[in-house]
Design a protein that fits this description.
alpha+beta, Beta Polymerase, domain 2
Length: about 325
């Protein structure tokens, strides 16, 4: 079960801009994928030498650099130097316990949000922080671990299908955000199926394992809610603020993602109300079961106490009890 909060105590007392990774330590080396594309032309490569990473001077080409496993501090710091990122931005990329937010640095935008995934069944829900840097003709994406969350977008770029290869870097950022929000609904559908199974279990047999599953489900809902609510503000600012890095045509698509985020929030609030009702049902069922047990114990006690009381009376031999007078 992932922790609700990452340990940030390792940065206590350090000056601003200190580059320290905050999060779960990953295994292996980071993977850096560079994709350059324009309509009718796509070039993709996995690189190991970051000297190849530099802002593309050709305005007609969009450069997407995707970095997996941000636990390698030196790699992220080097990439920040290549693109002249502010030290506070690089620090936030390495701190994987950030609240979803949008920051405008003039020459680029810094966007951070969280992604969720679940393979179904009773597997634990997985989450990771994703950071995006939107420049005039480039996008940097940083993931905590290697995952196929952006695989479909990369496939569309390779095949040249859709609007992505015909648009600029801002449309690529929209596509990444849209994919993340769509994955929220996949996770919510899985949580909804778990809730339906729990409701049936509550009616049939409200046992302790059912209560434990309710608490685990409540924890997952809290985790998603902490990420979706701030993301709504991020999307709202992206479609309203006058940054020259986002075209007016892209803002229309961002408005659609904003509507999807609102829908996800409404679903989360409905699930929260259902979880509260399920806890009340469990407590009521447990109380009723306790009353039934106490009723049975009372009947058993009455059966065993009555003969003992009769034997005690018979032992008096019919003699009259005399109560001594107090002087």
């Amino acid at each position: 079960m992932p922790r609700i909060m990452k340990k940030r105590s390792v940065k206590a007392g350090l000056p601003p801009g200190s580059l320290i990774y905050v999060g779960d330590k990953g295994a292996g080396k980071a993977k850096v994928t560079v994709v350059e594309y324009q309509e009718g032309k796509v070039r993709e490569a996995s690189i190991s030498d970051l000297t190849e990473c530099f802002p593309c001077s050709d305005a007609s080409t969009v450069t997407w650099i995707d970095v997996n496993s941000v636990h390698q501090v030196d790699l992220v710091a080097k990439l920040g130097e290549c693109f002249s990122l502010h030290p506070l931005v690089v620090e936030d990329i390495l701190n994987t316990d950030q609240r979803p937010k949008l920051e405008d640095y003039g020459e680029y935008l810094y966007i951070v949000f969280r992604a969720f995934s679940c393979d179904g069944g009773h597997c634990p829900m997985e989450t990771e922080q994703i950071s995006l840097i939107l420049g005039p003709n480039y996008v940097l994406s940083f993931q905590e671990k290697e995952s196929p969350v952006f695989g479909k977008i990369l496939e569309r770029i390779r095949t040249g299908k859709g609007r992505t290869v015909k648009s600029g870097a801002d449309y690529l950022v929209y596509s990444l955000l849209d994919t993340i929000v769509d994955n929220y609904f996949i996770v919510l559908e899985h949580l909804g199926e778990r809730m339906e199974a729990l409701e049936d279990a509550l009616v049939a047999n409200p046992a302790y394992p059912t209560l434990r599953e309710i608490h685990l489900l409540k924890r997952d809902l809290i985790s998603i809610r902490r990420s979706v609510w701030p993301l709504r503000e991020v999307l709202n600012n992206m479609q309203r603020e006058g940054s020259t890095l986002i075209a007016d045509s892209t803002r229309l698509y961002l408005r659609d993602v904003y509507d999807h985020a609102i829908h996800a929030i409404d679903t989360l609030e409905t699930f929260r109300d259902m979880i509260s009702g399920m806890l009340d049902i469990y407590l009521s069922s447990a109380s009723n079961r306790l009353n039934e047990v106490m009723k049975v114990l009372t009947i058993i006690a009455t059966i065993f106490i009555s003969p003992a009381h009769s034997v005690g009376l018979c032992g008096l031999g019919g003699r009259k009890l005399e109560i001594p007078q107090l002087a």
